[in-house]
Amino acid sequence: MFNIYFTSVFSEVDPSTGATSFNPVTATLNDITLSVTEVEAVLANLDVTKATGPEEISARLLDETAQAVISTFLCSIQRIP
Description:
Blueprint: H1 2-10, E1 12-13, E2 20-21, H2 36-44, H3 59-64, H4 66-77
Antiparallel strand pairs: 1-2
């Protein structure tokens, strides 16, 4: 998901050929480990008066659904390659 976004942002189009060129990232973050407590703490400290981020999920929604979404967050962040 992030690779696609950053590739689109940092790609260069060659004006003579119209081809897109970029240097692909080969490093990955495979060893991210979070606990339920850490995710709960982050979600509990969200400022619900702030605007949404690029994914357009409001802090209020995350705050009110925290217990239901924690396991989903952990699975998506710590997915097995």
